[in-house]
Amino acid sequence: MRIIVDAFGGDNAPLEILRGAAMAVEKYKVDILLVGREEEIRRVAKENDISLTGMEIVDAPDVIGMEDEPRSILKAHKNCSMAEGFRRLAAGEGDAIVSAGSTGALIMGATFIVKRIKGVSRPALAPLVPSDKEPFLLIDSGANADCRPEMLVQFARMGHLYMTRVLGRTDAKVGLLNIGTEPSKGGPLQQETYQLLKDSDLPFIGNVEARDVPAGVADIVVADGFTGNVLLKTIEGTASMLMHNIKDIFKSNLLTKIAAAIVLPKMKGLKKKMDVSEVGGAPLIGVAKPVIKAHGNSDAKAFCSAIYQATVFASAGVIEAITEAVAKSPDAAE
Fold first, then answer.
1. 58-83 burial string, b = 16+ CB within 10 Å, else e?
2. What percent of the chain has pLDDT above 70?
3. Are 280 and 99 in contact (CB under 8 A)?
4. What tens digit of pLDDT does each residue of 117-140 get?
5. pTM across the whole model
6. 186: alpha, beta or left, given left = phi > 0 and alpha = psi -120 to 50?
7. Residue 58 three-state SS
């Protein structure tokens, strides 16, 4: 398995990315194709005693930043590490790509360089999000702010195939994110999507409210990208705030420190359950090759997890399953 890695995407590039890639080579025995400024990659690796064994480097002189216009990946920044990585993926020089760079540029590059699966209207970001039960898939979480009802149905279909193939959850239930559980709730988008999902062959359980999502009421939560992104960041922010406050409570005095020592194993389990670095990133589903968007602030552990996620995505046959399903589906794009 060969994973293409954008060495200059994200807040901690290239140091944490190189560390994460080295961890993945050792832990998962993958081959890595590092794309970025070769001289700087080698310098950073040498200064920090990072082995580049199992990694090949492709020189890319430019970097596309978070502040750059996403479409510039196609022209003004066509020689950036992310664009070169996509070209290598499209040419078959790797099985998947991982980048922690600009989400907008990643979606633009994946769509126009790697291309969509035939019949897919738009690719969608689909992170696994912690819940009180098993993690749920949130699709879309930011790729498409404006959606049509048939697009949301297609997201649900692709998300269900991903959950089935990658996580083996064949009984995964689909819920539509809405402001109430009744079929009449929401605007035209939600109301029309509800009816289409109800009439589909998907295991649709109806509308789900944001307050119930963390309880694990649905395995796949479908939303337009704007609403899904707001939900995702709210959950992430709330989890971070709660963990910070719990830590402060346990540190407040001698008695609470003793209590902390008693419940430490349980707290470690909770922290791991809520830790985004355990997953590493979100698949961009609907593209012709596996693409993983790692968190912008990924450290080495998170990036290693994202690389592992890319290997699972690439070997699970998700692309082929979506291609076949979409071709037979009435919601396929022209």
1. bebebbbeeebebebbeeebeebbbb
2. 96
3. no
4. 999 999 999 999 988 888 999 999
5. 0.91
6. left
7. strand
- 31 cis-preceded (ω within 30 degrees of 0): no
In which band, very low, low, confident or very high, does the pLDDT at 69 lie, cut at 50, 70 and 90? very high
Residue 115's Cβ-count burial label (10 Å; 0-12, 13-18, 19+) is middle
High-pLDDT (> 90) share of the chain, %: 78
Distances (CA, A) of 274 to 20, 129, 134, 243, 278: 20, 9, 11, 9, 9
Separation between Cα atoms, residue 174 and residue 198, nearest integer Å: 10
As a whole number of angstroms, the distance between CA 288 and CA 64 comes to 23
Cβ distance 318 to 311 under 8 Å? no
Rounded CA separation 23/307 (Å): 10
CA distances from 197 to 68, 191, 222, 325 (A): 37, 10, 10, 16
**pLDDT the model gives residue 330:** 66
The answer for residues whose C-beta is within 8 angstroms of residue 295's C-beta and 6 or more apart is 10, 100, 276, 277, 280, 281, 302, 306
**Residue 117 gets which letter from DSSP?**
P
The amino acid at residue 32 is I
CB 92 within 8 A of CB 305: no
Task: State which H helix or E strand residue 233 sits in.
Answer: helix 225-250
User: How far is Cα 176 from Cα 206, in angstroms, rounded to an integer?
Assistant: 6
**Rounded CA Rg of the chain:** 20
